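Checklist before submission:
- one chain only
- standard amino acids only
- sequence pasted in full

Submission:
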Amino acid sequence: MFRTKDLTIIAVFSAILFVQELALSFIPNVQLTVFLLVLYSKVFGLKKTCIIILIHTILDNFVMGSLNLIYFPFMLIGWLIIPIVTTTILKKTNNNIVLALAGIMFSLIYCWIFIIPNVIVYEINILTYLSADIIFEIVLAISSFLTILWLYYPCSKLIRKFINKIIVN
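Returned file contents:
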Protein backbone atom coordinates (compact mmCIF):
# COMPACT_ATOMS: atom_id res chain seq x y z
CA MET A 1 0.00 0.00 0.00
CA PHE A 2 1.24 3.45 -0.86
CA ARG A 3 1.46 6.31 1.62
CA THR A 4 0.19 9.80 0.82
CA LYS A 5 3.73 10.95 0.00
CA ASP A 6 4.11 8.06 -2.47
CA LEU A 7 0.82 8.90 -4.16
CA THR A 8 1.84 12.54 -4.40
CA ILE A 9 5.18 11.61 -5.95
CA ILE A 10 3.44 9.32 -8.44
CA ALA A 11 0.95 12.06 -9.35
CA VAL A 12 3.55 14.81 -9.76
CA PHE A 13 5.96 12.74 -11.82
CA SER A 14 3.14 11.30 -13.95
CA ALA A 15 2.11 14.87 -14.72
CA ILE A 16 5.68 15.81 -15.65
CA LEU A 17 5.92 12.82 -17.98
CA PHE A 18 2.59 13.57 -19.62
CA VAL A 19 3.06 17.34 -19.98
CA GLN A 20 6.53 17.11 -21.49
CA GLU A 21 5.27 14.70 -24.13
CA LEU A 22 2.40 17.03 -25.02
CA ALA A 23 4.70 20.06 -25.04
CA LEU A 24 7.09 18.37 -27.47
CA SER A 25 4.42 16.69 -29.59
CA PHE A 26 4.84 19.20 -32.41
CA ILE A 27 8.30 17.68 -33.11
CA PRO A 28 7.82 14.05 -34.25
CA ASN A 29 9.55 11.56 -31.92
CA VAL A 30 11.53 14.18 -30.01
CA GLN A 31 10.59 13.68 -26.40
CA LEU A 32 12.00 13.13 -22.95
CA THR A 33 9.88 10.05 -22.23
CA VAL A 34 12.62 7.41 -22.47
CA PHE A 35 14.96 9.59 -20.40
CA LEU A 36 12.32 10.21 -17.73
CA LEU A 37 11.34 6.54 -17.53
CA VAL A 38 14.98 5.50 -17.08
CA LEU A 39 15.37 8.21 -14.44
CA TYR A 40 12.14 7.28 -12.64
CA SER A 41 13.08 3.60 -12.70
CA LYS A 42 16.43 4.31 -11.08
CA VAL A 43 15.07 6.75 -8.50
CA PHE A 44 11.61 5.36 -7.66
CA GLY A 45 11.96 1.66 -8.48
CA LEU A 46 9.81 -0.71 -10.48
CA LYS A 47 6.44 -0.48 -8.74
CA LYS A 48 6.06 3.32 -8.70
CA THR A 49 7.42 3.67 -12.22
CA CYS A 50 4.97 1.06 -13.53
CA ILE A 51 2.08 3.00 -12.00
CA ILE A 52 3.41 6.22 -13.52
CA ILE A 53 3.55 4.46 -16.91
CA LEU A 54 0.01 3.15 -16.56
CA ILE A 55 -1.30 6.64 -15.73
CA HIS A 56 0.72 8.18 -18.56
CA THR A 57 -0.42 5.62 -21.12
CA ILE A 58 -4.09 6.00 -20.18
CA LEU A 59 -3.86 9.82 -20.33
CA ASP A 60 -1.86 9.79 -23.56
CA ASN A 61 -4.33 7.48 -25.29
CA PHE A 62 -7.32 9.37 -23.94
CA VAL A 63 -6.07 12.83 -24.90
CA MET A 64 -4.68 11.79 -28.28
CA GLY A 65 -7.92 9.97 -29.10
CA SER A 66 -6.44 6.54 -29.62
CA LEU A 67 -7.78 4.79 -26.53
CA ASN A 68 -8.50 1.44 -28.12
CA LEU A 69 -7.49 -2.14 -27.62
CA ILE A 70 -5.28 -2.18 -30.68
CA TYR A 71 -2.71 0.45 -29.62
CA PHE A 72 -3.06 0.72 -25.84
CA PRO A 73 -1.52 -2.66 -24.86
CA PHE A 74 1.39 -2.21 -27.25
CA MET A 75 2.16 1.25 -25.90
CA LEU A 76 1.91 -0.01 -22.34
CA ILE A 77 4.24 -2.96 -23.03
CA GLY A 78 6.66 -0.71 -24.90
CA TRP A 79 7.01 1.66 -21.98
CA LEU A 80 7.00 -1.07 -19.30
CA ILE A 81 10.07 -2.68 -20.84
CA ILE A 82 12.12 0.31 -19.67
CA PRO A 83 11.60 -0.03 -15.89
CA ILE A 84 11.70 -3.83 -16.06
CA VAL A 85 15.11 -3.86 -17.75
CA THR A 86 16.42 -0.87 -15.79
CA THR A 87 15.53 -2.37 -12.39
CA THR A 88 16.75 -5.88 -13.24
CA ILE A 89 19.51 -6.15 -15.85
CA LEU A 90 20.74 -2.58 -15.33
CA LYS A 91 20.01 -2.45 -11.60
CA LYS A 92 23.60 -1.81 -10.51
CA THR A 93 24.40 0.49 -13.44
CA ASN A 94 24.43 4.22 -12.81
CA ASN A 95 26.79 5.05 -15.66
CA ASN A 96 25.09 7.61 -17.87
CA ILE A 97 26.85 6.28 -21.00
CA VAL A 98 25.57 2.74 -20.43
CA LEU A 99 22.10 4.08 -19.65
CA ALA A 100 22.20 6.31 -22.75
CA LEU A 101 23.10 3.30 -24.92
CA ALA A 102 20.25 1.40 -23.28
CA GLY A 103 18.06 4.39 -24.18
CA ILE A 104 18.78 3.72 -27.85
CA MET A 105 17.71 0.11 -27.36
CA PHE A 106 14.55 1.14 -25.48
CA SER A 107 13.64 3.60 -28.23
CA LEU A 108 14.03 1.02 -30.98
CA ILE A 109 12.12 -1.65 -29.06
CA TYR A 110 9.31 0.81 -28.37
CA CYS A 111 9.10 1.70 -32.08
CA TRP A 112 9.29 -1.93 -33.20
CA ILE A 113 6.48 -2.96 -30.86
CA PHE A 114 4.17 -0.70 -32.89
CA ILE A 115 4.88 -2.71 -36.03
CA ILE A 116 2.30 -5.27 -34.94
CA PRO A 117 -0.75 -2.99 -34.53
CA ASN A 118 0.19 -0.80 -37.49
CA VAL A 119 0.57 -3.76 -39.84
CA ILE A 120 -2.82 -5.03 -38.65
CA VAL A 121 -4.61 -1.67 -38.89
CA TYR A 122 -3.08 -0.39 -42.11
CA GLU A 123 -2.62 -3.81 -43.73
CA ILE A 124 0.83 -2.95 -45.06
CA ASN A 125 3.99 -4.98 -45.47
CA ILE A 126 6.34 -5.00 -42.47
CA LEU A 127 9.31 -3.89 -44.57
CA THR A 128 7.29 -1.05 -46.04
CA TYR A 129 6.35 0.08 -42.55
CA LEU A 130 9.94 -0.17 -41.31
CA SER A 131 11.32 1.79 -44.25
CA ALA A 132 8.76 4.56 -43.68
CA ASP A 133 9.38 4.61 -39.91
CA ILE A 134 13.18 4.35 -39.82
CA ILE A 135 13.82 8.10 -39.71
CA PHE A 136 11.41 8.48 -36.76
CA GLU A 137 13.10 5.57 -34.96
CA ILE A 138 16.49 7.22 -35.45
CA VAL A 139 15.20 10.58 -34.17
CA LEU A 140 13.73 8.97 -31.04
CA ALA A 141 16.92 6.96 -30.44
CA ILE A 142 19.15 10.03 -30.79
CA SER A 143 16.95 12.20 -28.57
CA SER A 144 16.81 9.46 -25.93
CA PHE A 145 20.57 8.91 -26.05
CA LEU A 146 21.43 12.60 -25.75
CA THR A 147 18.93 13.42 -23.02
CA ILE A 148 20.04 10.48 -20.88
CA LEU A 149 23.70 11.26 -21.50
CA TRP A 150 23.36 14.96 -20.63
CA LEU A 151 20.53 15.03 -18.08
CA TYR A 152 20.64 11.76 -16.12
CA TYR A 153 23.22 12.76 -13.47
CA PRO A 154 21.95 16.28 -12.70
CA CYS A 155 18.28 15.27 -12.69
CA SER A 156 18.94 12.13 -10.65
CA LYS A 157 20.77 14.19 -8.05
CA LEU A 158 18.02 16.82 -8.01
CA ILE A 159 15.16 14.33 -7.66
CA ARG A 160 16.94 12.35 -4.93
CA LYS A 161 17.55 15.59 -3.02
CA PHE A 162 13.88 16.54 -3.47
CA ILE A 163 12.66 13.10 -2.34
CA ASN A 164 14.98 13.08 0.69
CA LYS A 165 13.69 16.52 1.67
CA ILE A 166 10.08 15.28 1.44
CA ILE A 167 10.81 12.16 3.48
CA VAL A 168 12.63 14.11 6.21
CA ASN A 169 9.87 16.71 6.54
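Reviewer check: The longest helix spans residues 126-168.
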